[in-house]
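Appendix B: complex inputs.
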Amino acid sequence: MSLAPDTFDFVATLVRQRSAIQLEKGKEYLVESRLAPLARSAGAANVDAYVRTLRANTGLHEQVVEALTTNETSWFRDITPFNMLRNTVLPDLRNRGSRRIKVWSAACSTGQEAYSIAMTVKDHHPDLDLSIVATDLSEEVLAKGRLGAYSQLEVNRGLPAPVLVKHFVRKGATFEIAPPLRQQVTFRKHNLLDQPPMGGPFDIVFLRNVLIYFDVATKRDVLARVRRSLAPGGYLFLGAAETTIGIDDTWERVHEGGSSVYRPREGK
Amino acid sequence: MKALVIDDSRVMRRIVGGILTDVGFDVVEAGDGKEALDRLEEHDDVQLCCIDWNMPVMTGFEFVVEARKRDEWRDITLMMVTTEGEQNQIVRALAAGAHEYVIKPFTPDIIIDKLQFLGLVEAKETL
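Resulting structure:
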């Protein structure tokens, strides 16, 4: 079933206004697949019919934006950034005398990235005093992150078994993050277009697989806000398909072991 | 690269074997732990075993214990692939010498993820 063009336009505009995420033409399938469950639960015949009700009922807009901006996530998503965190970034911060490390996990979804960072620090740099602020637009994913309870399928994905048995406690059908790690992460609702969240300045920001959804002007805007949220000498991790190059030249790229991390250039 | 898939279900051997073939393994199969020990004797180039827990004749756990007694097999990566998901079983399997543990049901990307962690498949950054 294909989506009516005006349905797509309406949803794309709504999502852009609320989240700055750009839904290009060709993403009709995404709108269709993400909104179909909402349409069904609202008793609408299809997504087109459901979106027609949205025009009159602005109260439903938030859940539509949530449904379209929630990203797939997994533990240690791509291994290389976590290796770089462990082998390069944390040792550098330690050498510069920081024992208290503040991290911002932006667009954190259900918390796997934030908890993966906490596990990395606990296993490899246990003397560091870590606090993580994990933010997302969606209250639904934040609630799940706070709970720190994941299904068997979720813990199978990307989580090495030795890490699983070390940092999780099985409770019935779910695996829960052990309390010491959970206490290091604070979940907060935050829009990347607003001022950075409380809890900074941050030594490390993870902003992975988020910029890909934005247009160039918004990318610049978000990167500028992130730069202001960083402590001097701080680091920014982006997704594998993302870069500051050609968008914002106030960042320098540190490339190592197949992965990159970014730092504000001196004097910029 | 060669992998040994050990499961008493032919369907499961085909599923796991198919995933491994897709990422470049030659696959041999065994229907229980005892048969798996025989396969390892025949094929001295096996690098990875995917091991079900509950099987007749010899369980996957017993296989891990036996395989770990043999010095010439110490470089073989052992990965449990089983419905047994109790935390103490995972701990037992790892303590006995298994490197990884996949709880059924799983999807192909979960197996591939684990192989990346183990360094058997090249890690790629993904979107």
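Chain B has a mean pLDDT of 92.
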